[in-house]
Predict the 3D structure of the following.
Amino acid sequence: MIKTTEEILNQKYMSAQDLKVIIPSLGINKCTEYIKKIQDEMKEKGYFVPETKKYLALTKLVRKKFGI
């Protein structure tokens, strides 16, 4: 099931696959890299970082980084 951009932007957390849906021109590896960078930022700011198989980052920080 493919999520819409609106559904993704309303989620609390976003994965690299979600970022790829929002910005299709980015490769999946680049998306994963960005999510990891944002996770590092989350750790610095004291936010909770989910420990899951998929890398997840706060949607609000992803939106801020990319100006969405």
About this structure: The beta strands are 13-15, 56-58. Residues 5-66 form one domain. The chain has one domain: 5-66.
